[in-house]
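Quick log. Single chain, no ligands specified.
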Amino acid sequence: MSETIRVLFLDRDGTINEDAGSYITSREQFRLIERAGEAVALARDAGFRIVVVTNQAGIARGITTIEEVEDLNRYLNELLSGWNTAYDRCYYCPSHPDYPNPLYDRFNACRKPETGMVERAIGDFLADGFVVDRSASFFIGDKMVDVECGLRSGLRPVLVRTGHNEERLCLERGILPEYVADDLYRAVTGHILV
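-> predicted structure:
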């Protein structure tokens, strides 16, 4: 018998950690946004599974490596441990359509706004006996592609004003989140856990 779960899908750069303006390649550049760790802890305590989904085209562009991205993802969980929390799963997309690379082009369907990373997470949960309730699950990010990915995936999209803050672009394109928050903490406490 499968158990139904709620998932909080989170973009990484600009949503959980500060967007450095270019690709983050080292732990020294990686800084959590204020109260982001607390937000993740609150969501987990409320029963949400936490899944990070992040475009990392710097790999295809040769700016960063798979090893560096995976080290930063591990470091994120090390930082979250300061709030006695962690993410459950983390997925990243190394490809970029403008930088063809035979090693990474097969991952084009995972690059947000495509839904490949979300679908893979949902499939991985299912393989472990958990059914994701999409109608009770959220996708939080700082870009229009995050909102669009959430909508395409049947999740409830939330836009945060940290990072790129593409609120105006979402309005112009008619790709609308169900909620806009100043940051991850306010998204969780002001909308998701209300």
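The first strand starts at residue 3 and ends at 10.
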